[in-house]
UniProtKB/TrEMBL annotation:
Pyridine nucleotide-disulphide oxidoreductase dimerisation domain boundaries: 358-467
UniProt organism field: Zemynaea arenosa
UniProtKB keywords: Cytoplasm, FAD, Flavoprotein, NAD, Nucleotide-binding, Oxidoreductase, Redox-active center
Active site (record annotation): H456 (proton acceptor)
Catalysed reactions listed for this entry: N(6)-[(R)-dihydrolipoyl]-L-lysyl-[protein] + NAD(+) = N(6)-[(R)-lipoyl]-L-lysyl-[protein] + NADH + H(+)
Protein's UniProt name: Dihydrolipoyl dehydrogenase
InterPro entries noted in UniProt: Class-I_Pyr_Nuc-Dis_Oxidored, FAD/NAD-bd_sf, FAD/NAD-binding_dom, FAD/NAD-linked_Rdtase_dimer_sf, Lipoamide_DH, Pyr_nuc-diS_OxRdtase, Pyr_nucl-diS_OxRdtase_dimer
Intrachain disulfide bonds: C51-C56
């Protein structure tokens, strides 16, 4: 056991919330340590959390690679590009994914060094309160004891298991195993038609798997604007994803080589399906395993989340928590914003996070992105609104790209014209949504976007046209 090391701020967890909080605190002049236990294949440090290692980054790498493969096999011919002898080199595709992950891991370690953040590789846990602060243990290759005034808990989340169907990451897969299948399965089952289920289902469908998605809810993408969700469902079904809604999952049998799922469909009829692999994507649970919060009296709620107030303060003085381990959407960029805000609050500044302007993205093809209220939410509130839509099939750049699926939809207050929500399904929706986020943060009206000059030809013109459509004066449709 080495001597106790003293810091102003110790961050437990090196995911998007944690590493960003550590860097911002260091920029503000604090002596900062960040503890993270993720390991790469060689046992070395792999900071970045679920997002970098088994979430956002590797999934986008595989989504991009699989989209290239599908384009080469189907779309290139239309562009006058003939591909002979097309074949899939899955080991190389997975190798590239690993390289992208490694580059991000190393980038975070470089940023720690650049910003003079002390990094400790291991599991961080509370040991107790001491000298107006806290003692933190690090269990790793070499055990360490840290002493600090402020603690930021950023330990993230884990995939939720389905009772009776534990992850073995060989046949029954979490998002981790879904990213590392070493051969394209003939029949792939997915339980849960959420972000992870649709993204992973899309990857393996493009690569040749027959994909069946079983969703318990009676509606498809219930959090998405209903009009956008219906359009997405139509497009995914046309692509070949078999999506069954209103399923009640029963017994799941894993014989080590395949898995049998018994379920009742939306009409109550008993069904049975056999899959080579089964991805379970039914949400995530907060990760407080090994944190030893009991040692200091850290309060958790009934679902295991760390209890925080609007400023991410816990029930303990100078202990904060951010990201997936607290209330709010489990999104990497939400965690980053909270990490920055907490670091600034520790410095006596006024950190800012606006939950109403946090964008959501599903990186399927077409992409789905939105910010603000859905039309069904506005109806439930009884709020008077105006709506405007514009299809990508009427957009010149989309035609040139060869991807005219989907639309942009604006929702604005009926009286003031303030933008209340923007919803997109279509090409590059993840990038287009940023304009809407900026506009809503400044409480812009749909007229403001309608009056701004957008480059031609560009996909962003669909955003302008949808804003014009709120006032029923779209120019190109």
């Amino acid at each position: 056991m080495s001597d106790t090391k003293k810091f102003d701020v110790v961050v437990i967890g090196g995911g998007p919330g944690g590493y960003i909080a550590a860097i911002r605190a260091a920029q503000l002049g604090f002596q900062v340590a960040c503890i993270d236990e993720w390991k790469n294949e060689k046992g070395g440090p792999a900071p970045g959390g679920t997002c970098t290692n088994v979430g956002c980054i590797p999934s986008k790498a595989l989504l991009q690679s699989s989209e290239h493969f599908e384009h080469a096999g189907h779309a290139f011919k239309e562009h006058g590009i003939d591909v002979a002898g097309l074949s899939l080199n899955l080991p190389q595709m997975l190798k590239r994914k690993k390289t992208v992950v490694d580059q991000n891991n190393q980038g975070i370690l470089f940023l720690f060094k650049k910003n003079k953040v002390s990094f400790f590789h291991g599991r961080g846990s509370f040991a107790g309160a001491a000298d107006g602060g806290y003692t933190i243990n690090v269990a790793g290759a070499s055990n360490e004891t840290l002493q600090t005034k402020h603690v930021v808990v950023a330990t993230g989340s884990n995939a939720r298991e389905l009772p009776g169907a534990p992850f073995d990451e060989k046949v029954i897969l979490s998002n981790d195993g879904a990213l590392a299948i070493d051969a394209v399965p003939a029949n792939l089952g997915v339980i849960g038609a959420g972000v992870i289920g649709l993204e992973m289902g899309s990857v393996w469908r493009r690569l040749g798997a027959k994909v069946t998605v079983l969703e318990g809810l009676p509606t498809f993408l219930g959090a998405v604007d209903e009009q956008i969700a219906k359009e997405a469902h139509k497009l995914f079904t046309k692509q070949g994803l078999a999506i069954s809604l209103g399923c009640k999952i029963g017994k799941i049998t894993n014989d080590g080589k395949s898995v049998t799922v018994e379920y009742a469909d939306d009409k109550g009829a008993e069904q049975k399906a056999v899959f080579d692999k089964l991805i379970i994507s039914i949400g995530r649970v907060p990760n407080t395993i090994g944190l030893n919060g009991d040692a200091v009296g850290l309060k958790l709620d009934e679902r295991g989340f760390v209890v925080v107030d609007d400023e991410c303060k816990t029930n303990l003085p100078n202990v904060w928590a951010v990201g997936d381990v607290v209330r709010g959407p489990m999104l990497a960029h939400k965690a980053e914003e909270e990490g920055v805000a907490v670091a600034e609050r520790i410095a006596g500044q006024h950190g800012h996070v606006n939950f109403n302007t946090i964008p959501w993205v599903i990186y399927t093809s077409p992409e789905i992105a939105w910010v603000g209220k859905t039309e069904q939410a506005l109806k439930a509130e009884g709020r008077a609104y105006k709506a405007g839509t514009f299809p990508f099939m009427a957009n010149g750049r989309a035609r040139a790209l060869g991807d005219t699926s989907g639309m942009v939809k604006f929702l604005a207050d009926a009286t003031t014209d303030e933008i209340l929500g923007v919803h997109i399904v279509g090409p590059m929706a993840s990038e287009l949504i940023s304009e809407a986020v900026v506009a809503m943060e400044f409480r812009a009206s749909s007229e403001d976007i309608a009056r701004i000059c957008h480059a031609h030809p560009s996909l962003s013109e669909a955003t302008k046209e949808a804003a014009l459509a709120v006032d029923k004066r779209s120019l190109n449709f």
